[in-house]
Amino acid sequence: MGAINIIPLFVVIPLGAAFIIALFGKFIKRFSDIAAFVTSLGLLACSGYMMMSLQNAPGKLLVYKIGGWAPPFGICLVVDGLSVFISSIISLIGFFVTVYSIAYMEKYTDKSKFFTLFFLMVCGMNGAIITGDIFNLFVFLEIASIASYALVAFGTGHEELEASFKYAIIGSVASCFIFMGIAFLYGFTSTLNMADMARVLSYKQGGMLAPFVGVLFLMGFGLKSALMPFHAWLPDAHSSAPAPVSAMLSGVLIKALGVYSILRIFFNILGATQVFLSALMFLSVVSIVIGGILSLSQWNLKRLMAYSSIGQIGYILLGIGLGTPLGIFGALFHLFNHSIMKSLLFLTAGSIDYAGGGRDLRDMSGIARKMPFTMKSNMIASMAVSGIPPFGGFFSKLIIIIACIQKGHVGYGACAVIGSILTLSAYMKAQKFAFFGDIKDSLKNIKDAPWLMKFSMGALALFCVISGLMLLPGMRIFISDAVQVVLKGTSYSSIILEAALR
């Protein structure tokens, strides 16, 4: 099977798995576990194969024409350096979260429903990333969003249901902004193919259309990525959801639906103006500083991590807002690092909760003696996300700070340093109150996580340690290819249309 024919499998595999698990999961013991493991492993293998195949593809671009119809008349799926980079992160995190969930979700009543919703969410994220059609981007975005609303409420407790309802309402508002932006663009360009839309916009003057649509998309995708001041849904959703869901939401969902869409639409369709980049940098710095302060003030471990996610998204979007090759490289490198680090942090929080330690730091103390593996994994992730060398998070933050200084934004670089200090303070607070000190009587009988959960945490901890190797010349190419797609701007549209006509 050629590399082009594998592209639809990124949607077909998780969608088929969701259907099969829903059909047979209730009636065959362990069917859900086996099907979920095989599916996530298959997606990871497809991502690896696609990443390798893309290096030998003409122009490092693959276009799959659905039904054989070439764009702009037909719908196409596009794999380039940016889409394969993001989809590989989804597959990697999805695999480890799936393995973790096999043991963790035993405490819930219906694992088959969980994996059905889980793979619908993965299907939506993959579809949004590889589609070449802006309306299909919206459709896949909604599939992932609706599945995530249900997953947040999976515990069916008062807190989970309230968080899910809030998330659904705010997510629906975001979807309305995005849909209106798409409608205005379609009305002006008479096409939904993203490459053709960029081509039309390049020669057809729209006056104030692009700035107006840009504001709609910034609000819509800003809500999806939880950029301040569009962050209100995230702390409740991330802290209330089961740990595997929190890991997926913070690790990949807000990046696949928010950050990727901002990159694709603003750089490759509308063209990133200096006004947009300046606004993005300002909002990013606000997210970094305020997110750090709010995380430091939390006593609920998962809420602390949730507010930290807002700050870390700020780093990613700050690099993007700089618009320079070094800034975008640092942003994408930090996107990879944050996916690993924050997924691991939420999994360690889930391990504590699974063992009976709860989520309130004031009710914990000295559990390092009972849960040494979880403590070490949490420490590694905490150091990495705080930007302590030699972890990968240090290098990606350093690159973003250097890019700020190179562009003359010394103040923004200083805010990024302050954000790291706040992050370190928040996670050292979590370490102190959760793992150190005298163990409480109520926690003396807790045990460390089962081996499947340890496997996922250990693997992600290893990635935190070695992710700095991504800067080596042989490894850097995967990030550099994604950066080149972004830097090509609206001229990228002609490359896609030419590739589709081959």
Classify the beta-strand content into a percent band.
under 5%
Q: Biggest β-sheet, characterized?
A: 2 strands, antiparallel
Q: What is the radius of gyration?
A: 22 Å
Shape label:
globular
Helix content: over 70%
Low-pLDDT stretches: none
- Structural class based on helices, strands and sheet pairing: mainly alpha
**Amino-to-carboxy terminus distance:** 19 Å
Arrangement of strands in the largest sheet: 1-2
Number of strands: 2
List the topology elements.
Blueprint: H1 3-6, H2 9-24, H3 31-54, E1 62-65, E2 76-79, H4 81-104, H5 111-130, H6 134-152, H7 158-189, H8 194-203, H9 209-225, H10 234-240, H11 243-270, H12 274-296, H13 301-322, H14 325-355, H15 372-385, H16 392-406, H17 410-435, H18 451-466, H19 473-487, H20 492-500
Helix pairs in contact: 2-3, 2-5, 3-4, 3-5, 4-5, 4-11, 4-14, 4-18, 4-19, 5-6, 5-11, 6-7, 6-11, 7-9, 7-10, 8-11, 8-20, 9-11, 10-11, 10-13, 11-13, 11-14, 12-13, 12-17, 13-14, 13-16, 13-17, 14-15, 14-16, 14-18, 14-19, 15-17, 15-18, 16-17
In words, what does this structure look like?
This protein has a domain at 275-471. Helices cover 74% and strands 2% of the residues. It has helices spanning 3-6, 9-24, 31-54, 81-104, 111-130, 134-152, 158-189, 194-203, 209-225, 234-240, 243-270, 274-296, 301-322, 325-355, 372-385, 392-406, 410-435, 451-466, 473-487, 492-500; strands spanning 62-65, 76-79. A two-stranded antiparallel ribbon has the order 1-2. Helix 13 packs antiparallel against helix 14 (325-355). The two termini are 19 Å apart.
List keywords for this structure.
502 residues; mainly alpha; two-stranded antiparallel sheet; 20 helices
